[in-house]
Amino acid sequence: MSSDASPQPYPGDPNQPPPGAYGPPPGAYQPPPGAYQPQQPQPYVEQGVPQQPPGAYVPPGAYAPVPVQGGNPRGRGPKVAVAAILSVVLLAAVGAVVLFKFVLNQGPDPAESFPATATMYVELNLDPSFDQTPKLLEHLQKFEDLEEYDDTNELIDGFIDESGIEGVDADEDINSWLGRRHGLATWEHDDQTFAVLSLASTDAEAAEDGMAQIRTAAGTTEEQFAYTVEDDHVLVVIGETGAADALAAAETEASDQPLAESDQYSEARAWLDEDQLLVHWVDMEAVGDLAEMTYGTESEAVKDLYSGHLIYGFSAFDQGFQLTYRMFGDADHLWTGTDGLVESTGDLPASDIAVSAYVPENIDEVTKTWLGFFEDFYGVDAAASEPVEAPLTAEEYAEYLELDAQFWADTLAPEDEARYAELESRFWAAGTEDDPYVEESYGPDFGEVESTVNDLTGLLAGATLSGGGNFSNDDDIDPDSLHFAAHLAEERAQELQELITTWSEGEPLPEGIEVDGSELSYAGPATAEGTLAEDDRFSDFAANTPGKCSVVAWVDLGRAAEEYPDDFAGLEPLSAFAWAHGAEDGDGTGVMRLYLKD
Prior knowledge:
17 helices; 34% helix; transmembrane helix
């Protein structure tokens, strides 16, 4: 460093940096920190400029800020100081990323360990990022039963203690090797469904001992509970039988075609934000196949209603928890959304509960699909049906009512529990001799249901519906706080009122209903003041919803806890729940948020 108090002007081009200001050329050898380094020519630096600490390591190619000569020296020092600070921050950030990726993030991607033919996959990651984990712990500590958990180790300890696993020492057999990133999948092999687990491991030897102890304590054999221990994870296969063969087959398939590289899963996971505490992916075609095994030919209705695959992720944000999902359908999502539904919901009265919905113009297609699904499950021929169990006699029914009253009053004697369970099972399966139950269609003929639905959808196609009210300890919802509105696509509000009157079966509609062309509305005398948009929680939620929404729902859980304290015992930190569902590129998508109190 020069000590000349009156430096000479730099003789080179004033618009270019001095030679050597940017360090050695790319690829030049750089000795490691602490090694002997020969003296290098030092660029001129003005007095007063903060200098690099002696011995500090400068990465290859790192930028070394050097002031340009000339002009007023005052003010240049702070700029160089800021640049130096930013360089240190950048190096620290890079080091933090390296530390997290290779040291703290305990466990490989579990999806790499599962076969691509897995039908359902769940991943739990307790340390997804420096951002998520602190928020998770901070939020959990707001709950009385969870406030003792200061880190993810304690979370796992608590889970193991609560599980009541006998014959297993939590610290020695599990915590000594268990990492933080785990996966669970269902997989079909040899016409049998197996559960496959991938558990992150930090100590293979401890994992081997721990898994052996767990299997012994569970009282299972290798044919029911098979596992293999790798350097960084343990793969487990559980089934009724054949688990060992299934484990070998799962390993072979996963090595060639892992789930992580399958087209459907990789597409879905790429859409979901990286930092998730929980990821759940489902092959909806497999759900249809399962329905076929359960319901036979009726499963075709399930397959028509659901297709493609679904993913959702659970994460933490500053004020609570968030669940984001998307349905990657083989066909366009039928329930399309519309612009402005979230904004119009924000204009509703600031009620404890509020809901808005857009009825798509193709509602007839939607209801046709739903009605087809419903019809396949709407009762059977009553003439061909008989009770599956003996109905209760008059004496047994009287005995059942007496025991049932004792059960709900928490006074049922232990010696009467078996008798109560028997009578209850028979009552709900077969009824009484005076009023036996058979498998039959309840309610109106299906043709009447279909006609009524079609009348309603014909009026509501393209409409926006909304409503809400306030919680009340005397009633579920305070009737005087109710409000609702239907904004129709055509001026048919009067027809809608007449249809509602028909459904009411002579009961008078509340006074105050207004009909004006395409709008039917009602507002009770105690409708909430202000709007939802004035609530910071709702405004924050609105900024994170799909562009086009079909449903928006809001529940003030803080108010619910005030009105129903017994039902919310232990859940006092809950503040609000919000949900918005819409469409993106033909797929159904949405977000749910659970807000916590500060």
